Amino acid sequence: MALGKIRHRKSSFVMPRLMITSMMDMFTIILIFLLFSFSDKQEHLILEEDLNLPKSTIKADYTDSIKLVLSQNSLKLGEELLAPIKNGRIIGLDPKNPQGSLLFRRLQEAYEKARMEDEGLAQENETKKNHILFLCDKNHSFKTINEIIKTAGMAGYPNFQFAVLKQ
Amino acid sequence: MLGGGRYRRRQEEDTDLNMVPIMNLFLVLIPFLLMSASFFHIKAINTSIPVLAESQKESQKEKKVKLTVVVELQKDKVKLSALGSDVSQQELERWDSTIPMNTEQTYQLEAMADYLKDMKKVYPASDTLILIPAENVIYDTIIQTMDVARRFEDEPLFPNVVLSGSVG
User: Fold this and answer.
1) Residues 101-130 of A with CB under 8 A from B
2) In total, how many domains does chain A have?
3) Does any domain span residue A87?
4) What's the mean pLDDT in A54-71?
C-alpha cells in the first residue's frame, strides 16, 4: 500500500518550467528606456546636493572650460573651495575691492596659465577661448551673481556659459 | 497517411522558442546602458558682461540698421528701451515701454516677447539684448527672461544676451 502511494506521487510530479515571458517583457521595457536615455557624451559634471540648476529651453552643449560653482553654501572653482556663502553673501569677497579676493587671484592665475599655453595662437582665438562655465543655484539673487561675474570679468573672463538643465 | 499526420502535429507542438540566449543578451546590455545613461542633460547659455571694445567697422554695403534692446528687470516692472547710433533719438524714444508685474507678482514675459517681436519686424538685423536685473531678482528668473529674449514660440529673437548690473 505504502509503496503504491509513493509510486503514485512520483508519477504526478511535473517538472516546473521557468516562465521567462514576463521577465522578457520587463527587460524589453527597461532596455527601451535605457536606449532613450543613452548619452554618447559622458557628463563630467558632478552636481552637488545643494545645487539646483535652473531649467532652460536652450539646446547648446557646454564646452570644457574653467568651472565655477556657486551652490547654496559655497563658491568653488573646480574642486577648490574658495569661499563659503552665508545669507547670500560671499565671505571674503569685498564688492568694493574684488581684486583682493581669492576668486580673483585664482582666476587670474588660470588666465595667465592659459595664456602661456596658448602663446602661439592668434590673439582673437585666444580671447574666444576664455570663458567660464558657471554653475549657479537657481535661488541666488543677482546681487550675489553680479559680484562673481564682475570679479571674473576683471580677471580676464568676460564670457560665460551658464549651465542649465534641459527642460 | 494518418500516422504521418499525427507525427507532424506532435513535432509542431514540441517547438518552443528558446529565450535563454536573448535573456543573456539583455543581461549584458542593461548594465552597459545603465552605465552610459544620463538622467540629466546639462546645457549651456552663452552670455557675456559688457566690455570696452572697438566698434566693428562694417562696409557700407553690408550696413543694416541695428538696435540694441535694454531690458531692466526692476522691482515691480520690466522697463524696455532701445539703443542705436543709426536712428534718431525720437525713433529710440518710440521704443520706450514699461510692463508692470501681473497679479501673481511675476514678470509678464509674454508681453516682453511681443515687444521684442515687434522690434525684430522693424529692425530684423538686431540681435543684441542687454539684460539689467535688479539686485533681488533670482537667477531662475534671469534664465527664464534670457530664454524668452532668445527665442519665443520657435521664433528667433535676440540671440546675444549681455548681462549687466545697473549703473548708479
Assistant:
1) none
2) 2
3) yes
4) 88
Q: Which tens digits make up the pLDDT trace of A106-135?
A: 888 888 887 777 765 555 554 445 788 999
- CA-based nearest residue to A53, from A71, A67, A65, A36: A71
pTM assigned to the model: 0.76
For B75-117, the pLDDT digits (tens) are: 889 999 999 888 888 888 999 999 999 888 889 999 999 999 9
Q: With beta carbons under 8 A apart, name residues in chain A contacting B24.
A: none
A49 domain-assigned: no
- Chain B contact for A148 (CB, 8 A cutoff): no
Of A43, A60, A162, the CB nearest to B38: A43
pLDDT at residue B6, rounded to an integer: 56
Please name each of the domains of chain B with its CATH number: 2-36 (no CATH), 68-163 (3.30.420)
Residue-range definition of the domain harbouring residue A64:
55-166
- DSSP classification of residue A57: -
If pLDDT is split at 50, 70 and 90, which confidence band does A141 have?
very high
List the single residue in A with minimal CA-CA distance to B25: A27
> Which among B43, B136, B165 has CB closest to A150?
B165
Residues of B in contact with A137 (CB under 8 A): 139
Q: Which residue has the higher pLDDT, A114 or B67?
A: B67
Closest residue to A61, CB basis, from B38, B39, B43: B43
Q: CB contact, 8 Å: B43 with chain A?
A: yes
User: Which of B73, B109, B136, B143 to mutate against chain A (most A CBs within 10 Å)?
Assistant: B143
Identify whether the C-beta of residue A92 lies closer than 8 Å to the C-beta of residue A83.
Answer: yes
A20 assigned to some structural domain? yes
